[in-house]
What we know:
Layout: H1 2-33, H2 57-66, E1 70-75, H3 79-90, E2 95-98, E3 114-115, H4 119-127, H5 131-150, E4 155-164, H6 169-184, E5 193-196, H7 197-203, E6 214-223, H8 225-238, E7 242-244, E8 247-256, E9 263-272, E10 278-288, H9 294-301, E11 309-319, E12 329-332, E13 341-346, E14 349-353, E15 357-358, H10 369-382, E16 396-406, E17 416-417, E18 420-424, E19 430-434, H11 440-455, H12 479-487, H13 491-501, H14 505-510, H15 535-542, H16 548-555, H17 558-561, H18 563-581, H19 585-601, H20 605-609, H21 622-635, E20 642-643, H22 645-654, H23 661-669, E21 679-680, H24 681-693, H25 700-714, E22 728-730, E23 755-757, H26 767-774
Helix pairs in contact: 1-6, 3-8, 3-11, 4-5, 12-13, 18-19, 21-24
Amino acid sequence: MAFRKAVKGTVLIGGGAIATVFGLSQFSQYRNKHGTLVYVQAAEPVTVPVKNYFPTREQQLLTLQSTSEFDVLVIGGGATGCGCALDAVTRGLKTALLERDDFSSGTSSRSTKLIHGGVRYLQKAIMKLDFEQYKMVKEALHERANLLEIAPHLSAPLPIMLPVYKWWQLPYYWAGIKLYDLVAGNQCLKSSYVLSKSRALEYFPMLRKDKLVGAIVYYDGQHNDARMNLAIALTAARYGAATANYTEVLRLLKSTDPRSGKARVCGARCRDVLTGQEFDVKAKCVINATGPFTDSVRKMDDQEVPNICQPSAGVHIVMPGYYSPDNMGLLDPATSDGRVIFFLPWEKMTIAGTTDSPTDVTSHPIPTEEDINFILSEVRNYLSCDVEVRRGDVLAAWSGIRPLVTDPNSKDTQSISRNHVVAISDSGLVTIAGGKWTTYRAMAQDTIDAAIQAHGLNAGSSRTVGLQLEGAEYWSPTLYIRLVQDYGLESEVAQHLASTYGDKAFEVAKIAQVTGKRWPIVGKRLVSEFPYIEAEVVYGVKEYARTAVDMISRRTRLAFLNVQAAEEALPRIVDIMGKELNWNEQKKKEELEAAKKFLYYEMGYKVKSDQLTDSSEISLVPSDIERYKKRFHMFDKDKKGFITILDVQRVLESISVQIDENTLHDILNEVDLNKNGQVELNEFLQLMSAIQKGRVSGSRLAVLMKTAEENLGQRVVIPVDRSGGGLCVLPQGFSRRSLNYPAGCERVHPEAGALTCTKHVHRYCDKKVIDFISKSILF
């Protein structure tokens, strides 16, 4: 058996090498002949008129209710569902789309953010001589090129490094990656290449050095998945599709076919989730594109139909951007349990994932601590020992459900299909399931082709290859410069708007508020460390956002980047949305609570906060305990055994630092484990212990208390009777003469190394002193 495997492996590797050499020669000829590497042959031009606006949600609902019959009704507003709607409407079919939640609220917003053919699928195709897997990779690589072309503002090529730690792996992986280039053909993004150890460390300095042989770099695509999904939906709306989020399908409508006498699906009974209003939508053809919820819609058609969806949970985590280079990803091809882990820069952060484990279908998947620790463990294996991979550096975590399916048309109904499946029931319900994000357009094309054939619809071929999505038409890599020059936006904000909205960024800039500062002129940020501005909330409502969760997770990506920053931005987001949507105070409160619940459970806030609990162990050496007790008692002057907001305010006032009461409440609440409005000594020691272990990072209270301790330690208190309007305390080395103090200033307590003026108010202080004071030297 071992001999046979060895022979098989030798044949495969040898054959791969031969194919690679041939492929490289052909590829080289191609590159010499053509100037560009990626080229997508556009489909027939779309003859359907496109609107220069998209209707409001209310107008869309009115269209759904007033149209006697649609040609196609799509259920599901993920990438595949929106792709089906766009494909159908651009063929001239009267199209409707219904989504129970928000567009991209499910799996489509919780991906690895890659647009890829699938290196591992190609490996399986070769090793198992599986032609179906090969075709899937080939199709995905074509769709990768198309997606990069039709939405260049939302997507871009990304180099991904595959580090090699054994010499024999270098030719093996090189051959495999070169075959990946070969399969892509004239749609190869950039040719892969080999790096020496030193060059690999130059490109990816965080990489583990010991035993590193070299690395191979190949190219795939990366995108903003939720915004891409939304762009597809908005493009469909511009072409005339009646699309509505927060519109739930309660049941399928059926009528009897007069020719066959069989019941046929002819529409759906719907409910507006926001108002509770129910209505019918009639259609010649109904398409089920609900991802993990495929079987629930199939059972609306036929209760006896067997399940075909086998859901699998994939968890991702987000870490600070310093964990990876800005423009280089990392692939771990063989984790400890045989899975693949990606480690990628995304939105100036670092995303790591994914896991693959069976799960139940739910609208609210929750990341588990076990999965988070698995990813961290794998990341540690590849990063230098100089880089401490801390649990506390996980800024956000989420779980997405992959809708893996068994093919109901196959004899072997138990085998999982990695490709997509189109099935048509006896009553005419068309179901599209499986597949992957990258191939959404091909999946939609196959689905509409099947629907046209099964229902005798009058339409031509697909027009979506090369069809530009919302924001792509007039976008250019330098568009952001015009935003800076024409509107006075910060460069970082302008770049963000251009890469999020494309040529529609000007519409956002036009409604941006004046800051009142010299620079930037417009564009008030929602939170200081991210480039999202308040105008995006207003524009997001126009883009059909109807809840605060829509805004923090899909119109902006704050929830996916940093849950604490998202929570910080929530009150302002709710206020702006409240004005746009006429929310009363009770509705605002409900939205705020719902969004916090979403962050707590679905975006990893709970597992993050669980790192510090009542039962957390305090493992500090005695000297550290004494040091932290001393710091604590600087705030707890009365020896109460706990500190409150008043204690913190008192200390902050003494060092001339002002923080509003609401922010202080949030800061203490992060550490207040028993939620009694105060932080006890034991809770503080638990916090410091968790920080030392790396389980907690970025604690605002810990940083605040340490800073206060250092500033108070620098000050020498000089008892001087107050006279004439205040006390000026100057650092050692400053003199009355060097500061040009007015006559009458007196030097007091020179042995203390300070100069005090007891005769003049603070307006006499020199700029040198003002600058020094601004660095925490105190009045």
